[in-house]
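As practice, study what follows.
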Amino acid sequence: MKILIACQHFAPETGAQALQATKVADALHEAGCQVQVLCGTQLLPVGYRRYPVMHVPAPVRAKPESLLQRMRWRAGHEIESVHRRAAWVREMAGRVVRLDSTFNADVVMTQSTPFRSHLIGLALPRSLRQRWVAYFSDLWPLSLTPYPYRTRLSMALKPLQMHALHSVLSAARGVLVSSGTTADRLVDEWPAHMRPECCVVPHIGTPAPVGPPDPALLERYGSRIVHVGKLTRERVFPQLIDAIRLYGAEGRGDGAISGFSFIGDVDPSFRLACVDLEQRGLVDFTDEVGPDVAQEISRAARGLAVIEARMEESPFLPSKFADYATLRKPILAVSPAGPVRDYLALNGGGVAVSHDAKEIADAIRLFGRSPLLDAGSETLATHFSAQYVAGRYVEAFRRLI
């Protein structure tokens, strides 16, 4: 099967979108597909990985410093993301047509985030749109997501963004999403006779390297629960701080969890509220590190944390959850109903708790005492292995095309 992937972010970028898009291309190549990638990365080198990678650099708008300017920047960014006649979109579409003239792809897959990657598909001729599949890593637009992600700005932009989404879903042969909850929310927005064909394909986790963790990292993080990645304001809540404080107040015996480590950027208000916990060693912070270092820290940790926002139901499947699972480390998930809870309930590999302080504190204690949480779940890891997910992609392509 020949697959032409069009996306904005790709290696050697190291953001979550770039890492996931690269893992998908790598996995499809390893599964025996012929893969070519056209991306918008600003970084070099591209050229060949194990397959051809070409690029049309996407324009980048620097974020301003002041709050008012950032609000204007955000609104402008969202409007630009649905601009079908943008120069980058048109140039990418033209390159796809030229590449396909010699490659003759069976599938043309556009990948978001950002949404404007899917506008490339709309600019393709009809013959190529018959082979076009749109992959959404997360539910879009934000107006379809629960509070706190559904903001006043997202509701103001909803008519414009829903029109763009309708255009994509109407023109593409099918849609791929990372979770069943996202698929349900997406499909429920459309009348029954207009609902898009939708398949669920999970994220690919980064496999663990061979060999034991670094001894220095094991000494530092071996008794800690580690959260890797950004902790944004939407996912900060006072009960998490109360839970860590409650756990610390009850004493820590031999073999107990010594505290939480946050690797990556955290919301400033959260760090400020944790000053006393940081002084007592119950919390520590490390600035953003590269993906290889983050993975080594994760391997050394006693457990790994997924922290979701407070909402009735989460449509999100965080890519870090897939990475944690394939490391076969026990997972502490502070999550509402949704994909993370479903995976843990069906496959084991960790504990899911609500946003209640006592429940979180009890789960922290459990990580220090229960031999059942000495390792993750092989069954859970399989769901996010490159081989398994590549097979899901191929099955979806055959169904949709």
Remarks:
- The chain has 17 helices and 14 strands.
